[in-house]
C-alpha cells in the first residue's frame, strides 16, 4: 500500500508528485515541509548542492557555490523537490555570497523550525578570492553526531 503525502503541513498542496513551474525568484519559491515520522529521535539530515548558482549583484556575472545544509529535524522535514526548486530560483537572482548563504539558511529555518540547522556556502573564486560563508541556528542538540561538511579549503575545488 503506497502512502500519499500528508496535507497536514499547513499548505494547500505539496509540489512533490506533480508538475510545477520553476520559480524565477527566491521570494516566489515555495518550500514544502512534511511531518517527521521520527520526531522523537535526534538525527541529522544533510543536503548537498554542489552546483548552486546566483548572479553578482554588481556585474551580473554568474557566481557558483557548493552548499552544504545540515539540520536536526523537529516536527517537520524539508521536502527535497521544493528545496531543488528553491535553490534553482537563485540562478537569475543578484545577491552577494554572504546574502545568498544566510538567506537560504534563515528561510529553511523559518519554514521547518528545526532543532538545529547550519549552512556552509563554499563559493568558487572570482577575482582570485574564494569566499566561504557559514551560518547556524543556536547550538547542536546534546549528543548529536555532526560530521564535518567535507568541503576542503579552496585548492581548485572539484
TrEMBL record:
Gene3D superfamilies: 3.30.1130.10. Pathway: tRNA modification; tRNA-queuosine biosynthesis. The active site is at 56 (thioimide intermediate), 63 (proton donor). InterPro entries: GTP-CH-I_C/QueF, NADPH_dep_7-cyano-7-deazaG_red, QueF, QueF_type1. It is found in: Cytoplasm. One of its GO terms (biological process) is tRNA queuosine(34) biosynthetic process. Keywords: Cytoplasm, NADP, Oxidoreductase, Queuosine biosynthesis. The keyword Cytoplasm applies. The keyword NADP applies. Residues 1-35 are annotated as: Disordered. SUPFAM superfamilies: Tetrahydrobiopterin biosynthesis enzymes-like. Substrate binds at residues 78-80, 97-98. It comes from the Bacteria. It catalyses: 7-aminomethyl-7-carbaguanine + 2 NADP(+) = 7-cyano-7-carbaguanine + 2 NADPH + 3 H(+). Belongs to the GTP cyclohydrolase I family. QueF type 1 subfamily. This is NADPH-dependent 7-cyano-7-deazaguanine reductase. It comes from Bradyrhizobium betae. The gene is queF.
